[in-house]
Design a protein that fits this description.
The chain has one domain (2-124). 79% of the residues lie in helices and 0% in strands. The protein is built from four helices and no strands. The longest helix has 30 residues, at 62-91.
Length: 126
């Protein structure tokens, strides 16, 4: 949820600054801030969750590890696809705007898909 919320804020910021052509828009600082905010917010929220529900009261079993692995495996292709798209864009000499945003989008999609796969695995029972 953090990743999607921060990405939405990033998109709103960039579109709010949009120039013509869009590739002339200053996206670098908002992109770096968005990544930093996402990392810090994730760490802070994880610490808060651990304070409310310490790990000692809940031990991950093999099912939890399998579901975690399934989420990573099923969503990793999105990062690979984004990296390949960025590579093709770089080889075709596209503007940096598109390359950077393709990479960022692939990480956002990976995080979202990873969470969705895990939720379905827990709900359906792995």
């Amino acid at each position: 949820m953090v990743t999607l919320a921060v990405f939405a804020g990033y998109v709103a910021t960039v579109l709010g600054r949009a120039q013509t052509p869009i590739t002339a828009t200053a996206y670098q600082v908002p992109l770096l801030v968005a990544v930093g905010v996402a990392v810090i917010a994730t760490v802070v929220l994880r610490v808060l969750v651990e304070i409310v529900r310490p790990s000692e009261t809940y031990q991950a079993d093999s099912r939890d590890r399998d579901i975690d692995r399934l989420g990573v495996i099923r969503s990793w292709g999105l990062v690979v696809a984004g990296a390949l798209a960025a590579l093709v864009m770089a080889l075709a000499e596209w503007p940096h705007f598109w390359i950077a945003n393709a990479l960022y989008l692939s990480f956002v999609l990976h995080a979202a898909m990873n969470s969705v796969v895990k939720l379905f695995a827990y709900r359906q029972g792995l």
